[in-house]
């Protein structure tokens, strides 16, 4: 379940679009907030961090926005790597909508728990509540839905969850309640989320769309002009993609230095 067999980022995106988009959001926000240090990034972080005080003042969106913000590169990479490792199997099993509900719902539940118990001055950010929420779903599988998870994957999850819980209490600057409420909410929501699902299959691939050409609805389909069709991306752009990305980064940095962004 946790061994990646995809041959490219494109294939990973086709198979697990929700996981890919969430990781992309994590990286993009870190990039403009910490790497480029843009004003707009500072604004997003200021209005997105999970502050108990401002939640109490009616800024309810702070229950959700901290999920995509991180305190530095390593924090972002650790949570994103955990999502890439443990998210794809659940996205395939649950489907896109239920996976989004699981990811956002467990994290939001953890953040509500933090708001109710921690002091009014407490502030937090990060996707750890969501990651631990996924752990909670896996733990439920191990206990009550053994047909959905193989023995080796159960052992991996058991070791990872045990280590994660130990590190929760050993390391400093960790939202203990966020981790505990995350795994608890994942375990509690799992019966609803796992209703009617099938076990993960590493060989599942999206079915290619059927194409029809002309009026022939039966038999093999062939497009005689398929080799003459233009590429989706112009060749000049594809060859110079690296320089285009570097140029965009440079422009964003200059705009940030000029206090425009």
Summarize the structure.
This protein has 261 residues and is mainly alpha-helical.
Question: Order of strands in the sheet with the most strands?
Answer: 1-2
- Beta content comes to under 5%
Measured distance between first and last alpha carbons: 42 Å
**Would you report the number of β strands?**
2
Q: Which geometry do the CA atoms define?
A: globular
Question: What kind of sheet is the major sheet?
Answer: 2 strands, antiparallel
What proportion of the residues is helical, as a percent range?
55-70%
Number of helices: 11
Q: Poorly predicted ranges (pLDDT <50, ≥5 residues)?
A: none
The structure class reads mainly alpha
Q: SSE string, helix = H, strand = E?
A: HHHEHHHEHHHHH
Describe this structure in words.
Helices cover 62% and strands 2% of the residues. The chain is built from eleven helices and two strands. Helix 2 runs antiparallel to helix 5 (73-94), helix 5 packs parallel to helix 7 (128-144) and helix 7 (128-144) packs across helix 8 (151-170). It is globular.
List the helices and strands and how they pair.
Elements: H1 9-15, H2 17-35, H3 39-48, E1 50-51, H4 52-56, H5 73-94, H6 96-117, E2 123-124, H7 128-144, H8 151-170, H9 176-193, H10 235-239, H11 241-257
Antiparallel strand pairs: 1-2
Helix pairs in contact: 1-2, 2-3, 2-5, 5-6, 5-7, 6-7, 6-9, 7-8, 7-9
Which characteristics define this entry?
single chain, 261 residues, mainly alpha, 11 helices
